[in-house]
Amino acid sequence: MSTIRTRIATLADLDVIASLFDAYRQFYKQTSDLALAQNFIRDRLTNNESVVLLASNESQQVVGFCQLYPTFCSVEAKPIYCLYDLFVSPDERRSGAGKVLLQAAEKLAAESGKARMDLNTARTNKAAQAAYESLGWVRDKVFYAYSKAVDA
What we know:
There is one protein chain. By secondary structure, this protein is an alpha+beta fold. It has one domain (about 5-135): Gcn5-related N-acetyltransferase (GNAT) (Aminopeptidase). About 35% of the residues lie in helices and about 25% in strands. It is built from four helices and five strands, in the order βααβββαβα. A five-stranded mixed sheet has the order 1-2-3-4-5. The longest helix has 15 residues, at about 95-110.
């Protein structure tokens, strides 16, 4: 297994993040749109609305990312992170990059005073589920997740 290093991304990383983010969206059956990806990531970073962690391999090539959105849990009355995006380039899967990103996110959450992290994944994404559970993530058996599109 190769050595994977993580770091917090900056606007200087916009092009590489956007490329990975576009691939992530395609994984979830969205049409490729690099300009949309760049604008979305630029806005999140510029407005301090998310934290993006990057994973690099031994060659210092960025191979994956995870995006954390700071939010709150009203019941606990504490800040949390929503880990909304986690993606590793297909040719780097099984390198450990995903697990290293999850561990880096957990460390950052603890250092930032977050009470916990939440995430959702597709029911069919068994590989991701196995990775989450191997790192101590617990599948919610109490709450259902709902969503509703809103006309903007």
